[in-house]
Design a protein that fits this description.
The chain is built from 3 helices and 29 strands. The protein is mainly β and 556 residues long. The longest helix is centred in the middle third of the chain and has 17 residues. The strands form 7 sheets. Strands 9-10-11-12-19-16-15-14 form an 8-stranded antiparallel sheet. The chain folds into 3 domains: 359 residues, Beta-galactosidase, Chain A, domain 5 (Distorted Sandwich); 106 residues, Sandwich (Immunoglobulin-like), CATH 2.60.40; 48 residues, no CATH class.
Length: 556
């Protein structure tokens, strides 16, 4: 991180144009058939619709991250002309690792990352006015979904906003996949299909992942930059096993007494290593082996390409083929993961895929991302938790009733082919995370053998306070294959407010009244607006039969 925040300067000019969209793959076959079976160009579906900037938060696993179709940094409005990963403004999650849960709110591991495409001595300029909306699909709900949270959008450089010297004829379809099960909930897959929209071959085409990882809390330095100046980059380069990872972690700041690797609190608030592992790319020019990383770079915040020749400097760093050894001491670094050069035939495409994740120490990161590689090589089929139940919340006077269906009980694990449902868990959100309210399971040879229920009444509530709940389903696990019991994700839950006021309008207009009404000059931030003449608040205080009720919609 290096730039001064300017919340008023938001990203960009939006101009709507029609663009060519290359359709979704209709095949669900082995992922190893890289350039044929999963190529979206095989199922062309005509024109797509350009849309405004959209944002969705992927939060089904232990890593939460913003996915957006913008090319601009939110905090400064700087247009980087490329796909942005995460949220530099910190308004929404930017690779938040919810482990340990007590520090989840401060476990931001990323300022922002980006996809960088290089050709003809400069970086390709993708333009956000040529981006489609973000499609979200979920396994178990959408027939063609791969994960519990799939996203997809398309963007290209065919915009009048792109100067002629930078307009090459390149499009990108980004897909992401994320899961909730314990063995695969610490990473998000980024799957890029990069299209040559021209009638000519694009030779010497480079692809890179840039990541400015500002990890967790301040451990030294001064001012707004303190928290980002104790990080160290590194890499794993194991050509024998096809393992290539660029990573960063919270290092030992020499200006702080003692060893503060991973933070100074207990447990360590930022003990994770964040990194991206290459899952697939085609063979580079002159090579026969696919999925080989061609370099790893890093620099500190003071060396960001920022002058008039920045596009050329980004390209030079992407194409130099260097593997830089880790720096001697922590600072505010970025890393640059490099792939290519590739050759893209006319009207054809290449695929580049990485898993972006976090793990406990370097060994934990490698173990987590190894699961990502396994899933890719096995057509995304792995042990899965039961489908989450559908549930409802019914508020009452001093109580909340939670009810859920039994659909999870017939879920089939795609890895074993068995119905391995075991039970339900009911969770309620607290200030420190999710708290277990109730657990029930099937009567069999394992577990507590409580028997199944499909409803629960929570009496430990206060009227007119908001409460958030989630119902999950879990399976038996697979001890023979060293797979723990898997539970569907809690997600963001559903919120309810007990103590609903259900009296009639006639009752509400009798008794004691409070004047003036509305009773506040400004609504609380959660209401989402400030009352004025054109948009008055509808909240009223009503005293009826000695009870004070706060409700909407009664005009007194």
């Amino acid at each position: 991180m290096k730039r001064t925040l300017n919340p008023g300067n938001k990203a960009g000019l939006l101009i709507l144009y029609a663009l060519l969209i290359l359709g979704l793959t209709g095949s669900n076959v082995m992922a190893l058939d890289k350039q044929v079976a999963e190529n979206p160009m095989l199922d062309y579906q005509g024109l797509g619709k350009v849309t405004a900037i959209e944002e969705v938060v992927c939060n089904v696993g232990m890593v939460d991250n913003l996915i957006s179709n913008t090319t601009s940094e939110k905090a400064t409005g700087t247009n980087d002309w490329t796909i942005i990963i995460g949220d530099d403004s910190a308004e929404l999650p930017s690779m938040i690792w919810k482990t340990p849960s007590v520090y989840a709110d401060i476990n931001h591991y990323l300022y922002f990352a980006s996809l960088r495409l290089g050709y003809n001595c400069h970086i390709i300029r993708l333009s956000q006015d040529k981006a489609t909306g973000i499609t979200v699909k979920r396994y178990g709900v959408d027939a063609d979904a791969i994960s519990l949270f799939d996203t997809e959008f398309y963007i290209d450089d065919q915009s009048p906003l792109v100067p002629a010297q930078y307009k090459v004829g390149v499009g990108v379809r980004q897909k992401t996949y994320a899961w909730s099960e314990g063995y695969r909930d610490d990473f998000i897959i980024y799957d890029w299909w990069i299209y040559n929209l021209t009638e000519d071959v694009l030779d010497s085409f480079f692809v890179g992942v840039h990541a400015d990882c500002d990890i967790s809390t301040a451990e030294g330095g001064s001012g707004a930059q303190a928290w980002s100046r104790d990080d160290l980059p590194g890499y794993v380069r194991d050509s024998l096993n096809g393992e290539y990872i660029s990573y960063m972690y919270d290092g030992d700041n020499p200006t702080v007494p003692g060893d503060d690797i991973g933070g100074r609190q207990s447990p360590k608030e930022s003990s994770g290593y964040i990194g991206s592992r290459l899952l697939y790319c085609p063979p580079a020019i002159g090579d026969t082996e696919p999925s080989v990383q061609k370099g790893h770079g890093w620099w500190d915040w003071n060396s960001d390409p920022s002058d008039d020749d920045a596009a050329a400097e980004w390209f030079d760093r992407l194409s130099d083929g260097l593997w830089l050894e880790p720096p001697p001491s922590p600072h505010d670094f970025r890393y640059y993961q490099k792939f290519g050069p590739f050759s893209i035939p006319a009207n054809d495409s290449i695929r580049v895929m990485v898993a972006f994740g976090i793990g406990e120490g370097l060994s934990g990161l490698r173990e987590n991302l190894e699961w990502a590689k396994y899933l890719f090589e096995h057509d995304w089929i792995g042990p899965s938790a039961p489908n989450p139940p559908t549930y409802t919340l019914e508020p009452g006077d001093g109580e909340v009733t939670i009810e859920w269906d039994d659909a999870a009980e017939s879920s089939i694990d795609p890895f074993s082919g068995e119905e391995d449902f075991e039970g339900y868990r009911l969770w309620r959100k607290t200030e420190t995370g999710w708290s277990l309210l109730m657990e029930c399971d099937v009567i069999n040879e394992i577990g507590f053998n409580t028997g199944l229920v499909h409803s629960y009444v929570d009496y430990d509530v206060h009227n007119y306070f908001q409460y958030t709940y989630s119902v999950t389903a879990y399976d038996r696990g697979d001890p023979d294959n060293d797979i723990e019991s898997l539970e569907s994700g809690v997600g963001s839950g559903k919120t309810v407010e007990p103590g609903t006021y259900n009296e009639t309008r006639g009752v509400a207009t009798t008794g004691i009244h409070v004047v003036p009404n509305p009773f506040v000059a400004q609504s609380a931030p959660d209401f989402g607006f400030v009352p004025d003449q054109n948009n008055p608040a509808t909240e009223r205080i009503v005293l009826s039969t000695c009870l004070m009720m706060l409700r909407s919609g009664f005009i007194l």
